[in-house]
Design goal:
With 329 residues, this protein is of the alpha/beta class. 44% of the residues lie in helices and 18% in strands. The protein binds 3-deoxy-alpha-D-manno-oct-2-ulopyranosonic acid.
């Protein structure tokens, strides 16, 4: 054991004092926020998700994974619950797989428009559904993310006026019971295909059509492999921009407020862009040679609502909730 001379002890003390006073060489690593979404990086929403990441970058290392590349469609919620991602754009249909009451929020012709969705989620009804997600899933829902109102898009040129005209049509729907019911409610034969495989399924004729909003169909170029859009307006499309409660609960109230404000600001930009683009897309698709027209929407609405009320899913709807949502102005 080398004897410590007075000089060497003094030298060690000076060195450690210098080290302690130096600026932190290894800054505290910021917590990572991995975010998964099925939307592709070309989608209007991508820009808003990235803008959110920019807005929180002083506290978090936000990393977005688009196109379902990290987690396939329908597996995002379980991935969050397992701690494999911290944030996701969850479909209410996927949430309803674990919280049956949520299926009311996925029913055809329920929400009138994007504003009705936002007002519902911002008010007492939304608070009840967010509490279910928090208590039962460990998910904090920041805001609904409107991405357009769903329209029927078909490979055939057969004129569609009422649900009866959809009989026998293999209508692609995302996988999951709530989505399959939506396809049935439109009078079609719902066929589950993941979003990432949808263009190929249309091109090959594996399915006869699909039902995304016009902006999504534009982004994914579905008009290249289909012939018509039937403006059924059957579902105001939205997902839920969500964060794990593990992350959310670690924030102070002021940090939660800033995080929430960043989400609201960035998603509001996406909503405005979708509303504007939906108006432009009718002329765009007509110019591409597709038929774009309105069917007998009242006939679709009446038939769909009847099917939902008679469905097994409706048994899980909280009493009086339909009326409360309709009453939101
Ligand atoms: C779809 O697969 O049709 C769907 O519209 C389902 C939505 O919940 C959402 O996942 C959406 O795809 C993606 O955001 C792509 O637009």
């Amino acid at each position: 054991m080398r004897s410590f001379t007075r000089r060497s002890v003094l030298a060690a003390g000076a060195a450690s004092a210098a080290l302690l006073s130096a600026p932190a060489v290894f800054a505290q690593a910021k917590p990572k926020l991995r975010f998964t979404t099925v939307a592709t990086e070309q989608d209007i929403r991508a820009e808003s998700f990235k803008a959110f990441g920019e807005a929180v970058k002083d506290r978090y290392d936000f990393e977005a994974f688009f196109g379902g590349n990290l987690f396939k469609q329908g597996t995002e919620l379980v991935a969050m619950q397992r701690g494999n991602v911290e944030m996701a754009n969850l479909s209410p249909q996927d949430i309803s797989k674990q919280i049956p009451a949520w299926s009311i929020l996925t029913s055809a012709y329920l929400f009138r428009d994007a504003d009705h969705v936002k007002k519902t989620f911002d008010g007492p009804v939304g608070a009840e559904f967010k509490k279910m997600a928090r208590d039962q899933l460990g998910v904090h829902i920041l805001t609904p993310v409107y991405f357009g109102t769903r329209q029927v898009n078909l490979r055939s040129t057969k004129k569609i006026n009422t649900p009866a005209d959809m009989a026998g049509t293999k209508l692609r729907m995302p996988p999951g019971e709530a989505w399959q019911l939506l396809g049935e409610a439109m009078g079609a034969n719902p066929t589950p295909v993941a979003f990432a495989e949808l263009y190929t399924a249309l091109q090959s004729g594996a399915v006869d059509g699909q039902d995304n909003p016009l902006p999504t169909s534009r982004t994914m170029k579905f008009h290249e492999v289909t012939k018509q859009f039937v403006l059924t307006n059957h579902l105001v499309g939205y997902d839920c921009f969500s964060v794990s409660t593990k992350i959310w609960d670690a924030m102070s109230p002021a940090q939660q407020q800033a995080f929430q404000a960043a989400a609201d600001r960035s998603i509001a930009v996406s909503t405005a862009k979708h509303l504007a683009q939906e108006k432009e897309m009718v002329d765009f698709f007509k110019a591409q040679g597709l038929e774009v027209y309105s069917p007998n929407v009242a006939a679709f609405r009446e038939s769909a609502q009847k099917k939902y009320l008679a469905s097994a899913l409706a048994k899980d709807w909280p009493k009086g909730m339909l009326e409360r949502i309709n009453a939101v102005q």
